[in-house]
Input
Amino acid sequence: MKVILLKDVKEQGKAGQLVEVSDGYARNFLIPRKLAVQANTDNVNALKQQEKKRAKQVEKEVAGAKAAQEKLESLLVKISAKAGVGGRLFGAVTSKEIAEALSEQHGISIEKNKIVQTEPIKTFGSYEVRVKLGHEISGTIHLVVAEGK
Output
């Protein structure tokens, strides 16, 4: 029997897939537990519509990520920090501080967990920080850490 999986089922497939299973497994396990529905023409058409909708959503998200990438390339984010002798900062500049500064200075909100720092920023200077924008698209934030506060 052909069924459309509504949820991920171990050893059968992922949600939204059309799979062939034995009649008894479908009637006695998958369908009563609302893990799958029988693959009739109405359900198959509904699945195709959902796939089209999902593809449009992904396309929209990719376009938004590319636009954000281009916008980030032209921006400069400035962060003020306190420092001790020799220009070493008290603490480090965190991704949370970078996200807040980006939001305050340019009105772009990016979650702090999407900002990737290879090593902590502990001195004054210019830095390039990578940002994961989604769908394998990443951008770069140009960051200047200056003395202040």
